[in-house]
Amino acid sequence: MSKQINLDPIGKVHAGEEGFSLEIFEPFRDALNGLEQFSHVLVFWWADRCDQAALRKTTLVDLPYAPGLRKGVFACRSERRPNPLALTTSYVLQVDVEKGLVILPWIDALDGSPLLDLKPFIPSSDRVRDFHVAPWMADWPEWMEEAAAYFQEHAVDFGE
Questions:
Q1: C-alpha R_g of the chain
Q2: Which end of the chain is more exposed for a tag (fewer CB within 10 A), N or C?
Q3: Residue 148 banded pLDDT, cuts 50, 70, 90
Q4: Coil vs helix vs strand at 125
């Protein structure tokens, strides 16, 4: 087996009726310096409610957005996986280094989810011109800015 890896949270996600934000713990707040100059951030968070021995053995899941299809967790964004590491790309509304807050318009993490890392969105590193997706996602919008309307129209209860 491989060497054990230890991850320490740098903060936590706040997601609720009052809005969406990332709270950065005090020792890491200086690391926010300069993030406000980027439009988007890659948010790495831990799906802690799925961090259970049984769920970590999950390799196949029923796709909630493609009824009747069962696919491998490496072919979807399910939180039920060997390591419940999640990634969300989000628009940055505001960064407050002193308070350790990054304000977002939305994030698909649950309130209190541990925050592991932030990286600025850099087009030359984080997007590709020529791509394809699986057929079950063929009707999904190509751009993040169009996704909210699409998913509201095609609402799926992903559960917790």
A1: 17
A2: N
A3: confident
A4: helix
Q: What is the DSSP letter of 39?
A: S
- CA of residue 28 relative to chain centroid, distance: 20
Q: Which two tokens stand for residue 90?
A: 């989000």
Pairing of strands 40-46, 85-91: antiparallel
The pLDDT of residue 154 is above 80? no
This prediction's pTM: 0.90
Q: Which of 128, 91, 104 is nearest to 14 (CA)?
A: 104
∠ CA 136-141-144, nearest 5°, is: 125
Whether residue 140 is predicted with pLDDT greater than 90 in this model: the reply is no
Rounded Cα–Cα distance for residues 102 and 85 (Å): 20
